[in-house]
Automatic annotation (TrEMBL):
Keywords: ATP-binding, Kinase, NAD, NADP, Nucleotide-binding, Transferase. This is NAD(+) kinase. Gene3D superfamilies: Probable inorganic polyphosphate/atp-NAD kinase, domain 1, Probable inorganic polyphosphate/atp-NAD kinase, domain 2. Belongs to the NAD kinase family. InterPro entries: ATP-NAD_kinase_N, ATP-NAD_kinase_PpnK-typ_C, NAD/diacylglycerol_kinase_sf, NADK. Its EC number is 2.7.1.23. Residues 373-455 are annotated as: Disordered. SUPFAM superfamilies: NAD kinase/diacylglycerol kinase-like. One of its GO terms (biological process) is NAD+ metabolic process. It comes from the Eukaryota.
Amino acid sequence: MTHRREGHNRGLIVYVDEQLRHSKRFDAAGIQEKHPNLFEPVRPKESQNKTHKCLNSNEGQLRYWDSEMCTMHPYLFDFVITLGGDGTVLFSSWLFQSNVPPVIPFSLGSLGFLTPFSFENYKPTLEHILSKGTRLHMRMRFRATVYRAMDNIDPATARERRKALQKGDSDYMIRNISKRGWCAVEMHPGADGLETPDLPVQDVHCFKTAPVESFEFLNDLVVDRGPSPYVTMLEVFSDDSHLTTAQADGLCIATPTGSTAYSLSAGGSLVHPSIPAMLITPICAHTLSFRPMLVPDTMELRIAVPFNSRSNAWASFDGRGRIEIRRGDHIKVTASPYPFPTVVPEDHPNPWFDSVSRTLNWNQRKHQMGFVTLNTDSSKKDQDPQDLDIDDVDSGNESDIETDPCPLEDKDGQGNEEFDIDEHTPSMGTQSVSGPPPAPGPLSERHMATLANQE
């Protein structure tokens, strides 16, 4: 803020959280008293929508943002600085539901998987980024659209539907889905309200649905049973085809960035953020064969709550916006057109591998020792092997044992002319290694008769 930019007579305009306006710890009055020039009126950056109060204010270089500003005016910000952990980065993704400015995440949290920059070096880091530029990593985000079942059908179909609901016939409600597709039963808002496709009623025997809200998420969409004690029944569709019926505590639809979050705890695989894929991970599935899977990001996934489900489901998006998914509702998941750009450190071009090892201790264990350990103690190099104390071997000091790789050769490299096996074989005594031989048992009458005949 105090350093002049190239081609400008003022520094940067900084937006801070609206909650800090009257904070005593932030002390905006003290900053104004110390730097009065920062509070001189500055013309704000132009935006397409000029209805927000921030565009008509006479504030200086220190301003305040709120959630409405981030949603309606994302182009006001050239870049975003986060101070915290991974939750702070996810919160910035939640604020910008459309276009997202480049994010510079500084680590102040406990895990720091998405925050590769250290806060201790924030000054040289920002100076380098502002003066020389930087590289960006475009992290994929998903869009989840919630469709609600609409009860606007004729009386004859309503009676047929009520009978199907009483019998728990879910096949009736999803009949001909593979033939016509979900586009035949979805209603899209138009100028005069909701418009229904011009299709015969007998061809589509199901609820008509309409999109009511959508969310952009960076980590995962979790559909679970919520407070219900019953197992959740979810129908999963992939590109208008029925994929499977999930009977579990829930499902986790994760992005590659979210593969190290809830999906990992549920048994999902680690996926590099550059791989375009969707992760489908069951949560405590009541079956032995429902394994996690990866599907292309070009697919259209739908998670529906069937009408014969014992209870409703609940959905959360990056742990926020928790809503109830009732019977007949479904959620469509597609790749978002608005990625999440993050700044990549210059000294770590691949920070994901470093984060996996640093934060998750991936594939780290004590190294296995070899069969032969070389002795590094110079005081025992000249020790005769015959003078070796057996107690040293029993106590586990294998590092004090030296082995001669060529026992049949002299120290000068020449072999012995004669070699007697008796001279090199230690005396084992009258007993074998495995113990004394067993005592002979008594002879039977048959053996005694055989010996008498031989005599």
